[in-house]
Amino acid sequence: MNTWRNASLAVTAAALLALTTACGQEQGAETPGGQAVGNAAPARQPADGGYGSDGGYGSEAAAGAAPKEAGQLAVWDSKKLGEVLTDSEGFTLYRFDKDTAEPPASRCEGDCAEIWPAVAARNAEAAAGTDASLIGEVTRGDGTKQLTVAGWPMYRYAQDTGPGEAKGQGVGGTWFAAAPDGKKAVVNADGPSAGEQADLAGLSVRKDPQLGDIVVDKRGMTVYRFKKDSAWPMKSACTGDCLKKWPVVPPVSKNDVEGVTTKGFVTFGRPDGIQQQSLDCWPLYTFSGDSEPGDTNGQGVGGTWYAVSPGAKLVGAPK
User: Fold this and answer.
1) For the chain, where are the alpha helices, taking DSSP H only?
2) pTM for the full model?
3) What is the per-residue pLDDT across 195-218, written as a single tens digit (0 to 9) for each?
4) Pairwise CA distance, residues 25 & 231, whole Å
5) What span is annotated as the signal peptide, if there is one (predicted)?
6) For the chain, what are the domain ranges?
7) Which of 41, 63, 279, 297 has its CA 20 to 30 A from that of 136?
8) Residue 126 · residue 134 · CB < 8 Å
9) Cβ density class 243-257: b for 16+ within 10 Å, e for less
């Protein structure tokens, strides 16, 4: 019994030592004002959390809001995504990679459902020229009926504030606009090709005309750091509503990196249970306000958010 306990303690100590070595105190990190790893109490934050103006999530994002009906579905011909399925008001419908179509099942509940409101199945009608037999429904955990297309549960994105928007495309690497047949909407010839997007590494470098070399994710979206975070101890000050605007960069294989430092290349287990990639032990994010590769709309937001250099430094931040 003692032998097993000693071995277990040794493994734990070794893991802690490895993390300490990767993210040591030599980082000289800024002290964050937000949630710390473990049970430490968060410090007081400014009213907007330091991540820009609030709002823009839509009334559907309110806790306890009933799923909104889709009505007469339609097809939006997006120049960048091809044919995209919409509801009767022209809002883009999305599918979630963590759901299943056979059998249909939704795994977006609680806080997730506030950001990604489920589309109610009642009174949904197939878009003109599409296969009506693909329209169905699934019973969610709360007993409500959610619209499905080819078995995939359908959602809206709370950041889309009007027709013709698809700000949820590629969020977290798991959310995608739905095509009329329930598949993921694909990039067509008017935008970057699907092959070009697929060829990007998990993290790579793009030369921006204003910012120079910056890190991008596998979708070509700009990667950011938050000045209120710290590298040692590794802490994220972006929690709650902040994550709606600044989704985390999910874990990336160390072998799936091109031109970017792998120093402090650690997967950060956040207190909220989300796994987040870090560079030089700094947590990484994307910005929901960037709608396509090449956008840098998050640069300098709130004086706290900045693009990341290949060496994991803040790009363009005041000294």
Assistant:
1) 2-22, 111-115, 194-199, 242-245
2) 0.48
3) 344 468 899 999 998 999 999 998
4) 8
5) 1-24
6) 26-53+200-307, 59-177
7) 63
8) yes
9) bbbbbbbbebeeeeb
